[in-house]
Each structure stands twice: as structure tokens, then as C-alpha cells.
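Progress note, sequence design subtask.
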């Protein structure tokens, strides 16, 4: 999706509790839907007492999406609790990742406002087989295409993976209603989001932004006062640190998160931030920037033999075209 500058700025303002009365709400809602931020937008405007200033049809639509998502998240929490209970009975205490953390920790009458597409759990490598057997007894089956486990009656996939530490802080044990799960420290969760988006999914190289995760990071930083300097020392190399600093600058630019000046003022970081922001504000002029970034990323993947070169010519052509033209954007912009 190619958002307009006004729509993006109105959405960011709304997520910060400020209402842009003159906004083009059709464009703002389209962007909120694309970035999976519509329920959060409604919840924030409700919390700051701004709903009465919205056009009536806009307020009704936002509330409808909010209520639908709340019902979905309630079902996801029941699904998560059932899975954790089965794993506990099999002697496995899972580590919860990303959206599964606030879902598990939320009180019985409340659920998070964020849209979640799946439930992410991790277990020790030695216990992965036992964990999958526990879930199979609940009726879960592997979904090869989507890369997770699923049942027909559920609203989301369950992704189970081996646990890998990404920093020095070990997850802490949390108990809820007789269930046991491990929760990564806030700094570990922040580092996971940054590394997942900018390195694993190559947003740093391709100039893309996942605003839902960026907003999650901003809230995490606000709630827990993250120590960015300590997090930065956990990174493996200078390339990862450059990506990390670029995400810090995006957090500061869009959500006002305080970031150490010595990291975000470096020329390379400012250039990479500009390369991500310019196509958002100037979609047509930004096409060459995206095309160059996508081309370099596709060439890197091909040279490093990650599977692209082994595809059939037709499949390779489709995948290459998808990479070049941002066909795999998903909810990113």
C-alpha cells in the first residue's frame, strides 16, 4: 500500500491520542486497516475522550472493528490457555513471544487491543518433539504453507519454534490461573521485534516499515523505560547495530521515543531513515528507492543460496517479481 502523507500523519497523531479533525477519514481508515492498527486507533481515541469529535460513521466503523477484534482476541486467549495447559501437563513450560505475552498476562475481563494473526510459542529444542505431540492430541495439524499448526475451529495459527536466547536476560516464569509460561524480559521482546523486522524480514535493506510493531515498541519503551545502550551491546555486528539505530530513529520520528543522540545522528542512520520515510511521503518518486533496495536484497539472497536459485524458472520469476515490486508487503508500508 502507498499511503498519503496526510493519512499517515493523521494515523500517527490518532495513535498518540491527538485527533486531526480535518483528516480524510477514508484514507486514514484504509491505512489503519492495512497496518492492522484500527482497533488500537479506536481504543486510543476512546481513552483520550476524542470519539465525540469523529464523524458519526467513522466512529461507528472503528467501534465495530474494535468489538470484532476484541471477540477474536478472547477466542485467541482461550486457545492459548488451552495450549499452555496441554504443554504443562506434558512437562513443557513454553516461552511466549510477541503478541502472546500481553494476551497471557491480561486480566480476565480485558484483552489487548492489537490485532494478532497467530500465537507464537517457543520451547527448548530437546522438548520440541514432546510439545508437538501434546498439541497434536488437541487436534492440531501441521500447516506446511503457513508454517504453523492449526485446527478448523480456531481463529489463528499456533507457531511453535525452538527457543533461542537473543540477549543475556533469561525469561521469567509467570503463573496465571494454574498455568505456567515463561515471559521474555521487556528488553528481549524489544530486541526480538527489531531483529525480526529489520534483519530477518529485511525491512532495513528494503526500506519498509511495520507500523504495528513500531507502535508496539513505542508502548513497550514507554511502559518499561528500555535501556537502548544495553540492548545495542547484544547485537552481533555493525550491520545489525546500524539497523537497530535506524529503528530507534523511526521510533523517535514517529512516536517521540527518546533515543541516545550518538546512535541516531550518525549520517548512515539518517540516510537509511530517509530512505524508509521518503517513499511513504512521496510514493511515486520513492519507487526507484524501493526498487534498488529490493534488487540488492534479491541479489543477496540469490548469492547466499537461500533457496531462490533452486526454484523452477517459473517459480523463480514469480518470486523475483514479488520481491522487486513489494508483492510481499503484507501489513507493512
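Output:
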Amino acid at each position: 500500500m502507498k499511503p498519503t502523507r496526510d493519512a499517515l500523519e493523521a494515523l500517527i497523531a490518532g495513535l498518540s491520542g491527538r485527533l486531526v479533525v480535518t483528516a480524510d477519514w477514508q484514507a486514514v481508515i484504509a491505512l489503519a486497516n492495512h497496518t492492522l492498527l484500527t482497533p488500537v486507533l479506536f481504543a486510543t481515541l476512546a481513552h483520550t475522550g476524542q470519539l465525540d469529535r469523529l464523524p458519526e460513521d467513522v466512529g461507528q466503523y472503528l467501534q465495530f472493528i474494535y468489538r470484532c477484534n476484541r471477540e477474536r482476541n478472547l477466542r485467541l486467549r482461550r486457545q492459548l490457555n488451552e495450549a499452555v495447559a496441554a504443554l504443562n501437563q506434558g512437562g513443557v513450560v513454553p516461552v511466549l513471544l510477541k503478541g502472546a505475552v500481553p494476551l497471557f498476562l491480561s486480566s480476565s475481563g480485558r484483552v489487548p487491543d492489537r490485532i494478532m494473526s497467530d500465537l507464537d510459542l517457543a520451547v527448548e529444542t530437546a522438548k520440541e518433539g514432546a510439545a508437538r505431540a501434546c498439541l497434536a492430541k488437541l487436534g492440531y495439524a501441521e500447516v506446511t504453507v503457513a508454517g504453523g499448526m492449526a485446527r478448523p475451529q480456531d481463529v489463528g495459527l499456533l507457531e511453535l519454534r525452538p527457543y533461542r536466547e537473543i540477549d543475556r536476560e533469561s525469561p521469567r516464569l509467570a503463573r496465571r490461573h494454574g498455568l505456567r509460561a515463561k515471559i521474555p524480559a521487556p528488553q528481549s521482546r524489544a530486541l526480538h521485534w527489531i531483529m525480526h523486522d529489520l534483519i530477518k524480514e529485511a525491512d532495513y535493506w528494503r526500506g519498509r516499515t511495520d507500523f504495528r510493531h513500531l507502535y508496539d515498541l513505542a508502548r513497550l519503551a514507554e511502559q518499561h523505560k528500555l535501556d537502548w545502550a544495553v540492548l545495542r551491546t547484544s547485537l552481533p555486528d555493525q550491520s545489525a547495530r546500524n539497523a537497530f539505530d535506524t529503528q530507534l530513529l523511526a521510533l523517535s520520528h514517529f512516536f517521540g521515543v527518546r533515543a541516545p543522540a550518538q546512535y541516531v545522528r550518525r549520517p548512515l542512520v539518517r540516510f537509511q531513515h530517509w530512505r524508509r520515510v521518503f517513499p511513504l511521503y512521496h510514493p511515486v518518486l520513492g519507487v526507484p528507492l524501493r526498487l534498488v533496495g529490493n534488487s540488492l536484497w534479491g541479489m543477496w539472497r540469490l548469492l547466499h543460496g537461500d533457496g531462490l536459485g533452486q526454484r523452477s524458472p517459473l517459480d523463480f520469476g514469480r518470486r523475483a517479481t514479488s520481491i522487486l515490486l513489494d508483492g510481499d508487503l503484507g501489513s507493512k508500508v
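The longest strand covers residues 118-123. Work on this subtask will continue into the next period as scheduled.
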